[in-house]
Write a structure and sequence with these properties.
Elements: H1 19-30, H2 37-47, H3 50-55, H4 58-63, H5 68-75, H6 80-92, E1 96-99, H7 107-110, E2 118-123, E3 132-136, H8 143-155, E4 162-165, H9 171-181, E5 186-189, H10 203-211, E6 213-217, H11 230-240, E7 243-246, H12 255-264, E8 268-271, H13 282-289, E9 294-295, H14 299-306, H15 317-320, H16 326-330, H17 332-342, E10 346-347, H18 348-355, H19 359-371, E11 375-378, E12 382-385
Parallel strand pairs: 3-4, 3-7, 4-5, 5-6, 7-8, 8-9
Antiparallel strand pairs: 1-2, 2-6, 10-12, 11-12
Length: 392
């Protein structure tokens, strides 16, 4: 009995080509040895559609810029049965295939020169949402890092943003969970194909994200979560957003590679200041020292810096950082400085009680004031003003 691999492949003419057939040939082209992202897009643009690439004569392929080895690989490709099986499985699981000229392909990603020609997407979030923030950081965060991540996303609840991250353990997980808790759509960018889910600890989280967000990857269905694939995942995270927020990362942390991509693509970078003695914040503090990122202490600050407007009835950070008077609410750190001016030192519990700020907000503000050299940390986690203030 003749198999798919043994029988002759008949390519449809361009004018009769269906969307499903063109998707089939686009995926097939990306599976040809030696034909990477750039060649895939170049060849399809040159010949009009992917099926026409496989119909082309060798001399036409050579004239398009590919060498003899690549031309022979295209003409001798015998992986069509595997592509068919892959697409059937993706269809069964509800995964869409997006080509980089499709309307639903994320335009922020399309605009970069090394964008992947194909994306595989499952979910209901808009990949072209008006406001997209990527949240990244260490896989081993402190309690402070988790609290800050949750707080900042809570403060952005009324902003209508889409939260993007990499579904890794740590800050990524905290960001996705916080987004779901506050009914913000969230996208997990995968470093593998849909056959796998890494890390396995996030399977339940990933299922929840499909109801209010989605999962996105550039990798073939069976591609495993091998380490060499994650830089490509990080590149997509960086390009997919308007702004990147780094919560905690070591000086040599992988998050800094994502920041490098984001800066290359012209994205705005924010980071949460951390203690100078905490290695998990060394990368964040280095970004501030190098002036590669803005220090972030509130969701409202992010929205304001990005030039985004709150919805008409939206409530920003002002309502979640209450002081006793409207003037104090404008600059909550001034309220802390005023309290510290009245005493030789205060504990974080005393500052929380007297300022009426949430503990996680207090932690953020104290770290920022410490980095600015305005306060010092004493034994027993007490805080002291470094010098008297003329006014606050």
């Amino acid at each position: 009995m003749e198999t798919l691999l043994e029988k002759e492949i008949v390519f449809p003419e361009a004018e009769t080509l269906s969307s499903a057939e063109e998707t089939f040939h686009r995926v097939a082209l990306t599976r040809v040895d030696g034909i990477g992202d750039a060649y895939t897009k170049k060849l399809i643009a040159r010949f009009g559609d992917a099926a026409a690439v496989f119909r082309a004569k060798q001399k036409d392929l050579l004239s398009s810029g590919v060498d003899e080895e690549k031309a022979s690989a295209i003409l001798g490709f015998r992986g069509f049965a595997a592509v068919e099986a892959e697409l059937l499985q993706l269809e069964k699981e509800g995964v869409r295939v997006l080509y980089h000229t499709d309307q639903d392909y994320p335009h922020r990603l399309r605009d970069i020169p090394d964008s992947p020609p194909l994306l595989f997407y499952k979910g209901n979030a808009d990949l072209n949402a008006k406001k997209i923030v990527a949240v990244i950081g260490t896989r081993s965060p402190s309690d402070y890092g988790r609290q800050v991540t949750a707080q900042l996303i809570r403060q952005l609840e009324q902003s209508g943003i889409l939260v993007v991250s990499g579904l890794a353990l740590g800050i990524d997980t905290a960001a996705h969970k916080a987004a779901l808790n506050h009914h913000l759509p969230t996208i997990g960018v995968l470093g593998h194909g849909f056959r796998h889910l890494y890390p396995p600890e996030n399977k339940t989280l990933a299922k929840a994200m499909l109801r209010e967000g989605g999962l996105l990857t550039s990798f073939a269905y069976s591609d495993k979560p091998d380490g060499f694939r994650f830089p490509d995942r990080n590149r997509i995270v960086a390009a997919l957003c308007d702004a990147v927020l780094v919560v905690e990362t070591a000086r040599q942390g992988g998050s800094l590679l994502t920041v490098g991509e984001a800066l290359k693509y012209g994205r705005k970078v924010f980071t949460v200041p951390g203690r100078l003695t905490d290695p998990r914040s060394a990368g964040c503090n280095w970004l501030l020292q190098q002036r590669l990122a803005d220090a972030l202490i509130s969701g409202e600050q992010l929205v304001s810096t990005m030039g985004w407007d709150w919805p008409a009835n939206g409530v920003g950070i002002q309502a979640s950082l209450p002081f006793s008077s409207p003037d104090d609410r404008k600059k909550p750190e001034d309220g802390l400085l005023a309290l510290l001016q009245e005493k030789d030192s205060l504990s974080i519990d005393e500052l929380t009680m007297q300022s009426q700020l949430p503990p996680s907000s207090i932690a953020l503000l104290l770290v920022n004031l410490e980095l600015r050299g305005l306060i010092s940390v004493l034994p027993g986690k007490r805080y002291r003003l470094n010098q008297p203030l003329m006014h606050v």
